Amino acid sequence: MNNYSKRPAPNGPKNKIDWSKEVAGSGRLAGKVIGKFFSYLLNILLTIMLVCFIAGIIVVTVFAVYVKNYIDPEVDLSLFSVSNSSQTTRVYYMDYTDRENRVGEMVELEDERIFGSENSIWVKYPDIPKNLVNAFVCIEDKRFWSHHGVDWLRTGFSAFNYIIPIKKAQGGSTITQQTIKNIYHEDDYTPQRKIQEILRALNLEKRLDKTQILEQYLNNIYLSQNCYGVQAAAYTYFNKDVSDLTLIECAAIASITNAPTKYDPVLNPEKQAERRNSILDLMLEQGYITKEEYDGAYGKELKLDYHGRAQQQTASTKSWYTDQVIVEVVAALQDKLGYTAANAWNYLYTGGLSIITLQDPEVQSVLEEVYLDENSFPKTNSDKQPQSSAVVVDPATGDVLGIVGARGEKTGDLLQNHATKSTRSPGSSIKPLSVYAPALEYGLITYGSVFDDTPVWFNYAEDDTAKTNPIAYPRNLPERYRGLTTVNVAVEHSINTIAVRIMKELTPERSFDFVKNKLGMHSFIESEEIAGGKTLTDKDIAPLALGAMSKGLTNLEITAAYQIFPNGGVYNKPRTWLQVLDADGKVVLDNTADSHVVISEQNASIMTKMLKKVVDTGTAKSCTLKNSVNVAGKTGTTSSDVDRYFIGYTPYYVCGIWFGYETPKSIGTNIAWNPTVHAWDLIMTKLHEKYINGATNGGTPLKTFTTADGVITAKYCKDSGKLATAACLADPRGNRIEEGYFTAATAPTEYCDCHVLVNYDKVTKAVACDKCPEANIIQVGLLKVDREFPANIKVEDAQYTWREVPEGTPMPDRDDVPFYIGLYPSGKYPGYSATDGKPVYNRYCHEHASLPDPEPEPEPEPPVDDTTDTGEPDTDAPVTDVTEPDTSGEDTSTDTESAADDAA
Questions:
Q1: Measured between alpha carbons, how far is 216 from 176 in angstroms, rounded to an integer?
Q2: Quick one: DSSP state of residue 789?
Q3: Going by DSSP bridges, is the β-strand pair 711-717/737-743 parallel, antiparallel, or unpaired?
Q4: At what angle do helices 269-285 and 247-256 cross, to 10 degrees?
């Protein structure tokens, strides 16, 4: 038996439990369990620690590799250097004997010397007031004096807030980090950029002391109103040296940096005051100012003495040309040498540079002379007269020879330059560049190609849901439609409809690439988001075919682009300066020429042939210089007459003129003459006097537009662009053959299929019907054109058109509609020609059509067989009793459809 069977008797004595042994056993058991638990826990912790350690090694290794391959922690101290001198920068022009080959001598423009006076942009740290330093430190980086380039507390919080946003994002960058960002122009907020910025900040603090870093920071920081650095801001807002700033003025300048436009004291004085008072609070709290100083500045009025951008405060007013040179050289110092804006400006004003410009002083002088004379421009009814600008470019080199940015006397430096900074829509002056030149180059058109000058489509007003009032698009100026028109006439008279039709074939994509990438007109906008979720784009028909751009382009851009026509199709990037030398004569900047072929030499010649007609007989025919020198060009007028352009050229110069109000509004039609053509004529006549006088007195003959090898002439029909036929000669308007310019590959080879010979009653002067007497019939050449409009619009060649009319089509009995009007349903129209109440040429001859049908000729009797006796009477005798049918009561008129009435 086992032990379990040994049970006490029910009534026997019970076994006693030894609780001490039980407790001890339980304790041992619990100890074992706890020991094993902690053993497992320790193993887990050790495993986690090992995994973390290994992961850490991996992360550190990956980070080290990442830093090595993608992060540059080094700091280029050369970017922090500034000119410590105060040497004058000198401006030169080249007195060329051969501009194309750069043969000439440097000549200084002594009146154009550039130097900083009391407002030198850069200011040394000892000259910066303590209150200004402290104001920036307390608002931007209160632990600046104690950290080593990075405030790890702020950086950690910013990183945590970036991952798990718990409050509005605040910057963790120290002044040292901001200095790095300003010097390297790094504004993107990527982890890579932030890591690089941190490493560079740590590196910079090892190489520069705190005061040197502050000097760099305070001289490079942007402070609105185009101010870089505290010295520029002091002169701009308070017209004083930075060392003379008061406490409230120091706080005001320090307030701007966080959001320059928002806290600009000129633009937003109330917001600025709030920010300024907050800085004063911090300065008091951090012990930088006393309570007495605080009370003297807090809530007090800030007295401004605003003087615009500080760079205008140089000793003398520079020319418009030098202004542009300054802007371009400063940009080049930043783009090519990595300078900050402040360093670049300082180097320009104090570095003793020599700038070799491409100005022609004679050209510049003529421009300034014309623009100083109020009589050079017509007066409008407005109290404030329109502005204007002019640019002259050498077509062979792209050198900008002269610039004037506004009318009247120039009153300061770096003012708004309407020639190089103002962007305005060019209107039709863009067509040769965006439509005709690329279409020629792509083989889509020729000199004699024909397009229909009629509306391309019709639009409807938003509230015209029934579509009862169609609006023709585009409209021409003046508002007329010629019908079939050649390309050369379209250029001559600036016909909008044909430019749009060609653009549809060319496509906006190809045109946009041509003007922006091949002709350097970077003001064309591919895509730009604006307020309200809208998108601006110039890659569309209206901007490219009609010049209705989103923001426009500069006069310099479009004038430089026109050089391809007199320069054999070659585009030279426009340049105002050639080289910049340092104080030791070493070249620090070289403005290398950028030239490339845009169109063929042959197409450039053909374009000049067409643009010359614009000046000879077209929209610029008021130009008088054409009587002495070859002139070609194109006018441009924008919608509502807001902007006017004329870009014209001779074999010597390309000159562009813009005219319009500074704040865009309609110029009005009360001016007596085209202001752009007139100003162009004044300038270019003066510039060409020496060439004209020289040629007249037996010197060098005047240059003329040359025709490129490979350009040939050919005759063609003006209504088809093809070789003429007899039908073309029979056009009622006269001979329709003209001569144009082509290459061997583009000259017409096919015969005209537009003109058709049509029977015409010369007596009734109408398209003949089958009842017109043969003696009245002549053949005329009418135009086979199929048009259908939702509105009855005037088309000048409408009365000379023809359409095939199927048998059974009702013919009209009216004189004011074409013979084929029965083809059109109600509400559709072929267009009409104004005839001053006279019948249209292609009317139907209803006079003869309404006559009775002619009597039918009697059928001849069958021949008689004389050899057979039939017993019938002899039929050789003439028939004398034939009775003609009575048709006097027959109705011979035809019914016409309502389209004839609609077309009246």
A1: 9
A2: B
A3: antiparallel
A4: 110
Contact of 302 with 273, CB cutoff 8 Å: yes
428: annotated active-site residue: yes
pLDDT of residue 312: 42
Query: CB neighbours of 80 closer than 8 A, spacing ≥ 6?
Result: 183, 208, 216
Neighbours of 14 (CB within 10 A): 6
CB contact at 8 A, 626 and 677? no
140 is catalytic: yes
Confidence band for 85, pLDDT divided at 50, 70 and 90: low
Asked whether this chain's domains 125-312 and 427-696 adopt the same fold, the reply is no
Q: What is the CATH T-level fold of the domain 125-312, as seen in this structure?
A: Penicillin binding protein transpeptidase fold (1.10.3810)
Tokens representing 13? 């004595």
Strands 90-98 and 354-357: parallel
CA distance 387 to 677: 15
Q: 411 near 372, Cβ under 8 Å?
A: no
CATH class of 427-696: alpha beta
CA distance 678 to 692: 19
Q: How far apart are CA 633 and CA 203, in angstroms?
A: 59
Q: Which of 83, 120, 140, 389 is catalytic?
A: 140
Indicate whether 885 pLDDT > 50. Answer: no
In sequence order, which residues have a C-beta less than 8 Å from that of residue 192 and are 6 or more positions away? 70, 71
Span 768-789, pLDDT tens digits: 999 999 999 999 999 999 999 9
Contact 391, 370 (CB under 8 A): no
Q: Is 529 helix (H, G, I), strand (E, B) or coil?
A: strand
pLDDT in tens, 134-157: 999 999 999 999 998 888 887 777
Peptide bond into 478 cis (omega under 30): yes
HEC string of 623-666 equals CCHHHCCCCEEEEEECHHHCEEEEEEECCCCEEEEEEECCCCCC
Within the chain, how many helices (H) and strands (E) appear?
25, 24
Helices (H), 373-476: 431, 437-441
Out of 255, 428, 449, 523, pick the active-site residue.
428
Cβ-count burial 549-577 (b if 16+ within 10 Å, e if not): bbebbbbbbbbbbbbbbbbbbbbbebbbb
Number of neighbouring beta carbons within 10 Å of residue 352: 17
Q: Which of 535, 539, 534 is nearest to 521 (CA)?
A: 539
Give the pTM.
0.77
Query: Domain locations in the chain?
Result: 26-70, 125-312, 427-696, 711-743, 754-857+881-904
Q: Which residues of 759-792 are buried (b: 16+ CB within 10 A; e: fewer)?
A: bbbebbbbbbbebbeeebeeebbbbbbebebbeb
Rg of the chain over CA atoms, in angstroms? Answer: 44
Residue 475 dihedral angles phi and psi, to the nearest 5°: -100, 150
